[in-house]
């Protein structure tokens, strides 16, 4: 597996990356083939699989089904230890560094070690930074942590940098799935200026213009979940015309 290396190579060449997030709790197995056909026609470079609340076993079944229809790399973006499956290619090994709940900073990660030992997943340590977006999102509820206020720029940038200094390989700025306001471009650009590692941005991004503005501000990889699930027209905007 060369997932992280490929992300770095793309960043060096200034090639912007896009992940489609599929939540096992929301995606019906019978819809996977038609959904993935659309993803394959789009500019997406990765598929992320995960959610805040997913029943045991669902993730593995879903990943097996997705794999039948695409060669795109599948990276787990787990809300919990039970979402680990060997069928994916890699995993964002997340620590919710914006929060102060020890379970999501280190507890779940310790629990995950024996599960990960049974897999060949490429493990990518990722600092996960949740930022307030106008409403309570599932991450906030499930992790019982407070997001950082949008106005606390210094805390946001210091948190992201602390993640890098701890050795994390990616920073993920998250507004939360279905966020009212995506992460603002000025926040993205302030964080990007400080970081020497790739920056992922997601939550509430619903249009090509919003994707482009995140890229322009410094996002290396943008994550889209809800908009792909809900809006057919959005797919058409993201068609790969090259
Ligand atoms: C959520 O960042 C992702 O963890 C994607 O969010 O569903 O709002 O696109 P959306």
TrEMBL record:
Metal-binding is among the record's keywords: yes
Binding site for Mg(2+): 23, 52
GO cellular component, one term: cytoplasm
EC annotation from Swiss-Prot or TrEMBL: 2.5.1.41
GO molecular function list: imidazoleglycerol-phosphate synthase activity; magnesium ion binding; phosphoglycerol geranylgeranyltransferase activity
Positions that bind sn-glycerol 1-phosphate: 172-178, 203-204, 225-226
SUPFAM superfamilies: FMN-linked oxidoreductases
Homology family: Belongs to the GGGP/HepGP synthase family. Group II subfamily.
Protein name: Geranylgeranylglyceryl phosphate synthase
Organism for this UniProt entry: Winogradskyella pacifica
């Amino acid at each position: 597996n060369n997932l992280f290396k490929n992300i770095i190579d793309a960043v060096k060449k200034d090639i912007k990356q896009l992940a489609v997030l599929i939540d096992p709790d929301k995606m019906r197995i019978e819809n996977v083939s038609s959904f993935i056909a659309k993803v394959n026609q789009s500019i997406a470079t990765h598929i992320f699989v995960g959610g805040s609340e997913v029943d045991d076993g669902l993730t593995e079944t879903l990943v097996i089904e997705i794999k039948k229809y695409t060669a795109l790399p599948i990276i787990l973006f787990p809300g919990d230890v039970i979402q680990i499956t060997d069928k994916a290619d890699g995993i964002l090994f997340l620590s919710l560094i914006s929060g102060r709940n020890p379970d999501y900073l280190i507890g779940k990660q310790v629990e995950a070690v024996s599960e990960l030992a049974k897999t060949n997943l490429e493990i990518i340590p990722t600092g996960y930074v949740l930022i307030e977006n106008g409403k309570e999102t599932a991450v906030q509820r499930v992790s019982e942590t407070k997001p950082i206020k949008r106005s606390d720029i210094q805390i946001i940038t210091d948190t992201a940098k602390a993640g890098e200094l701890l050795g994390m390989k990616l920073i993920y700025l998250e507004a939360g799935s279905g966020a009212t306001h995506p992460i603002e471009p000025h926040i993205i650009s302030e964080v990007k200026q400080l970081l020497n590692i790739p920056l992922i941005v997601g939550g509430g991004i619903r249009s090509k213009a919003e994707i482009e503005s995140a890229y322009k501000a410094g996002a290396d990889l943008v994550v889209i979940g809800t908009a792909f699930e809900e809006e057919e027209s959005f797919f058409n905007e993201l068609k790969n015309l090259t």
